[in-house]
């Protein structure tokens, strides 16, 4: 952990994972940090002290690749090489739902802003939408040609963007709305404006794309 002001100095390290940390997120008004590691665990820490609150063991043998936190700070979700996404109680780390099995690695996951739904992106090229409270799968997109490396809901929850060999926009019912074709490469991550009209991404050739959805 590093201070952003006034000197940008080192504060402390979060020690406890036994392999690389792939993703982290602040939540609870930046009072807590969740980390997802290749050791198969999520860990939640006190951001001010670095104290470990609890550990969620997603898998004893498979990597975790990413995680997300619901906007209401009540749920965590982890995504793994084991073909499952898992939903956890953010207050104590209890497992609530195991979502899957998917047909391949779950590489991306995102919770809707109203904290009611989540989408998972799979290496088989599909995106699934789930009810986060019941753990029931609601819809699934047709399979694309590449891994789904990133996926996100719009603020109103009505549209999903997914990134693979191309960029796709879907309705929340997984009906295709629009496609941006990437020539000669694939993208890994995408950033977006609050109105979900402007998007920025970098592909594997280091080309920067700024997209305006029409």
From TrEMBL:
Pfam families per record: WD40
Species the sequence originates in: Exaiptasia diaphana (Tropical sea anemone)
Oxidoreductase keyword on record: no
Gene3D superfamilies from the UniProt entry: YVTN repeat-like/Quinoprotein amine dehydrogenase (2.130.10.10)
InterPro entries (UniProt xref): WD40/YVTN_repeat-like_dom_sf, WD40_PAC1, WD40_repeat_CS, WD40_repeat_dom_sf, WD40_rpt
UniProt entry keywords in alphabetical sequence: Repeat, WD repeat
SMART domains cross-referenced by the UniProt entry: WD40
SUPFAM superfamilies for the chain: WD40 repeat-like
PANTHER family given in the database record: F-BOX AND WD REPEAT DOMAIN CONTAINING 7, WD40 REPEAT PROTEIN
The protein's name: Uncharacterized protein
Keyword hit for Metal-binding: no
WD repeats: from-to residues: 14-55, 99-140
């Amino acid at each position: 952990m590093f201070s952003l002001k006034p000197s940008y100095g080192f504060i402390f390290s979060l020690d406890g994972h036994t392999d690389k940390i792939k993703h982290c997120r602040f939540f609870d008004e930046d009072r807590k940090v969740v980390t997802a590691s290749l050791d198969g665990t999520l860990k939640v820490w006190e951001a001010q002290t670095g104290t470990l609150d609890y550990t969620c063991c997603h898998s004893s043998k498979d990597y975790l690749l990413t995680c997300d936190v619901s906007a209401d700070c009540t749920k965590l979700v982890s995504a793994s090489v084991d073909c499952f996404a898992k939903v956890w109680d953010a207050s104590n780390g209890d497992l609530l739902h195991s979502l899957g099995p998917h047909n391949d690695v779950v590489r991306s996951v995102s919770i809707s802003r109203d904290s009611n739904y989540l989408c998972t992106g799979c290496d088989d090229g599909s995106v699934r939408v789930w009810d986060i409270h019941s753990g029931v799968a609601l819809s699934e997109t047709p399979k694309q040609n590449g891994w789904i490396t990133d996926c996100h809901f719009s603020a109103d929850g009505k549209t999903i963007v997914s990134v693979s060999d191309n960029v796709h926009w879907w309705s929340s019912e997984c009906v295709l709305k629009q496609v941006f074709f990437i020539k000669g490469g694939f993208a890994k991550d995408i950033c977006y404006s609050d109105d979900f009209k402007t998007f920025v991404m970098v592909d594997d050739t280091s080309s920067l794309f700024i997209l305006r959805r029409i």
